[in-house]
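Can you make up a polypeptide sequence alongside its tokenized fold?
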Amino acid sequence: MVTHLCLGVIILAVVATTVANADIKVVCAKDSVKITWRISAELVPHAARLFLGSCMPSQLNVLPTGEGEALFNYHLADCKFKKLMKGKRLLYQNELTYRPQPKSKPAAFVYPIECVYKRPEGWVPTFLNPGMGFSEGRGGLVFHMALLNEQLTGVAKTNVIPLGSFMPIWAAVEQKSHQPLLLLMEECVAATTPELQPSSQVYPIIGNKGCLLESMRGNSLFLPRYHSSAVVLYLQSFKFGLGEEVYIHCKLVAWDPDVLHETKKACHYVKETGRNKTTQSIRAECSGMMAFFWQGALLLSLAAALSVYADMKLECHPDFLTLVWTESRSQADTSLFRLGSCFPTSVTAREAVFNVDFNDCHFRRLVAGNQLTYTNDLTYISSPDSHILPFSHPVACAYERCLVDSKISRSKFETRQKPSEIHLSLQAFRFALGEEMKPQEKVFFKDPVKLIQSRLQHISQIVLFQQTQMERVTAHYKHKSIELDRHLKEFSEQSYR
């Protein structure tokens, strides 16, 4: 072991001596250098360990004598040359090295290389250059458009929008390294086709170079911007294209935020003040040119809230309603309909019937002027494996809010003295339970026994329906369990084989 180590040291010393006696010729050109390094025959097998800075020999020639010539022909911008300025001279410095061992250890041989040139006329060091410059570039812009969820925290998981609710439509242009960009919605329309055609039925949403037309008809508005390169349109859903899919087409414009005028804006109508409100200040001047401009039609697909093929019959009674939903598509499961929080009173293959009181099902009671309205939503809860999307349909029963007896007598409400008090002057009328009443009068007086019986019958129907649903669910999972057991048994038999 010791003998071999000493022999290796002797060989290394011989190689180092051979390199030290090498013949090196350097020719400095205008912007390059050519080096010829003549090496001994012992060093030829190790020519791959010769370096000019970080560069290996560009060529190796083996001479008839067994010696070799390692040629380095590189530009001064390569091989990690050092550029130095001394007085009127420009120096490029580097090193020729022989590294028989990894670069982490010192080189066995080092030979300095230096090329000297006259300093160019008018040359100024980089750090003395004035802090100004000019840059110009061209490139495309990337636009995005999506439907956000109600919390404005991400993309919506469904594109089904109940009629009258809000849908936040987000649009943005990627800023990246561009100059500041302002994104504007110049025009938006709703259509029933994925591509706009001359014969397409359209519903205008934004027009007049950025005016939100829908804010005049509903409560739509532009939300405050979090960045100039993005905009959020808070659009209230509207009745359009019933039974069809609805597509929102928008023309987006990326503009210079410092050069705005009446044709480059984003404004909506504020009903409280009766004036238009803009999302950014607009100056009436057109002296500048846009930094970047791009426009194109982007498509957002929104399934219509009422995209169903059905017939609904609604009968409003004094304190309850009867709703019959007839479904023309046999694929829809009528048992998945809900009126508020209530299940159907009865269901068939194509029909769902609701016979419920206004005190149940979470009905909303609204009073406006002389009108009393009970509202709720009929919803379809789609199953995970169904291709039919969930949807919602508003249900409302309106009644006149007045003193009914004032139509046939002199009964009236007296003028209020205090807001917390009310005085009713009721004219006495003829009425006796033993006498025969008119049909329209019987509505307001029900037999308590019959009322209790109808309520119990309603509750029993609900219980029976829930039991049927539970049996169906239990049968479904029992079938799944049998299938899993069968697959497990087959897998076990195959593994034993």
Observations:
- Confidence is low (pLDDT under 50) at residues 1-18, 279-309.
- The first strand starts at residue 23 and ends at 28.
- The first helix runs from residue 2 to 20.
